[in-house]
Amino acid sequence: MNIRLVEETEVDTLIEIWYEASLIAHDFIDKDYWKSNRMKMKEQYLPMSETYVLSNEKDVLGFISMVDSYLAALFIDIKHQGEGYGKRLLNFIKGNRENIQLKVYKKNINAVNFYLRNDFVIKEELVDNETAEEELLMEWER
To answer: What tens digit of pLDDT does each residue of 32-43 get?
Structure first.
């Protein structure tokens, strides 16, 4: 198991991991929203991010994307969720940052609890302009 920078040839795999996990974690948002953002994820969001993958010998199991100290994405392949891989990726990033901010949908209880268990605190309640869903601004400091 290793964590390393993403390779160009793995981007489509990351899009699939993001898409499949988003449909499950964000089932309160119309699936067409996620479908319509696939190209944006590939052509805009991932290229502007510093992205690391967690992989075994043959497969990418998950990834984390940072824009400076903002955690833009943390997704684990749905077949491997609950195996500690998200925590591993998060701890890897924590080792390289003084503080981390992120936004998470308030209804995504599993993610909110995951970040709270990993020493993030809720700083503010916001509303996502694109989905009109409530979200939480969370922060971690070393």
So the answer is: 999 999 999 999
